């Protein structure tokens, strides 16, 4: 009964995009919609295939991926450190919190020109813009995660006179981990947004650059192909994060 | 297994609580919790604290465990070094992200080699009847099981002072009766000094050497009752004892008096 329902739901979630694509295909082929703006899915797929095999799309994917990885690593590590610091030390909280509160509302993409000035038009500015987007979400969620830990666990550590480092390792980190992972997931999303936007204006390569190029040459199928790649990216990130959640915070998944 | 106390140490002076005052201070607001509380405790003694809700019983445990500081440090006097302390809260305190094994190992001194820590934890896991749950995570335990883990964790840490704050209040009755028996068993094996906060007079009479009835807030000692029943005890047996009704009604009368005073004071 339950299995049937599960199978049914899975089928539905696969069927819904297939149905949408099928309708789109039919509408494009019958000329109901303008294929200059809405090329048929099969056209997009064959273009994607072509771009992957012969064009620069593969290179662009690699470039954007690398920028994402480096930016996420820099911003993630910094965010975790600052978030833990704020959560664990009142002094650190007093020092850092107003700074974060003041700078957080600034749209991160607005900092790009400044970064281009500071770091030049090379890769560093790209890494840093991703890192900045990542940093805020990870730091704030890590901080919130520590605030969410039931005081009973901290008191248990106090009663057993556990050392400062062991307390961080056994209480603060695992306790904050669920929200920390949420912060990372949100940060990756924002990082994508930032890297693609940055590639529009500054870049000789990358997925954002490919989309911009496609627009300038009115290569609509290529535009869709690049968008499809980003959508697949998003799906992979989401699946990876769900896997990480299951592996790293199984006590949360059970509830 | 080396017990915490050698038998000869039982009954020696362990703790003197001398005119203890304590208030909670939050945003300049001072809420007195304990006032002029004095109590002498012998090593290995099992003390139950009974009193109106919110009278300061938990505060006393929190001070003894080091979670709160008394107004004057000299009002808590340990004979000898301050004891190794374990605390069991009403709420489950087993870390949900650790296995039962890791939870029980948690309080053991880090200077003990790793394999010995593991062996020690295993022994107490077995003793508390947690054997089949060794590899379960804290999040997978029922309320009663989580309290067993907390007790095993405290005793594996060679706790000399065991503080229990209404530990069995949130479990169903059959589980509670079993937990009470198991607690008595491990207490007579490891001989820690025990403070046990409860709302149940029958539980207090079943478990303790002395029942300390506390006054309305700010709490001090109202009176002390010494259940004379021979150990090992069973609830049904002691309730059939001729002395039981007298002691129970003495405690109940005192408790009602203090509950009334507390209500008026508020």
Walk me through the structure.
- The complex is a heterodimer of chains A (255) and B (266).
- Chain A contains eleven helices and no strands.
- Chain A is mainly α and 255 residues long.
- Chain A has a single domain (50-253), classed as Orthogonal Bundle (MetI-like fold), CATH 1.10.3720.
- In chain B, strand 1 (13-26) and strand 2 (29-42) form a beta hairpin.
- With 266 residues, chain B is an alpha/beta fold.
- Chain B has helices spanning 57-64, 100-105, 114-127, 143-156, 173-190, 201-207, 235-240, 244-265; strands at 13-26, 29-42, 46-50, 76-78, 85-88, 161-165, 193-197, 210-214, 221-225.
- Chain B is built from eight helices and nine strands.
- The model of chain B has no long low-confidence stretch (mean pLDDT 91).
- In chain B, helix 3 crosses helix 4 (143-156) and helix 4 (143-156) runs parallel beside helix 5.
- Chain B starts with 12 loop residues before the first strand and ends with a helix.
- Chain B has a domain at 1-64 and 161-168 and 193-266: Rossmann fold.
- In chain B, the strands form two sheets. In chain B, strands 5-6-7-3-8-9 form a six-stranded mixed sheet, with helices on both faces. In chain B, strands 2-1-4 form a three-stranded antiparallel sheet, with helices on one face.
- The longest helix of chain B has 22 residues, at 244-265.
- Classes of the chains: A mainly alpha (255), B alpha/beta (266).
- Chains A and B meet through helix 7, helix 8 and helix 11 of A and strand 5 of B.
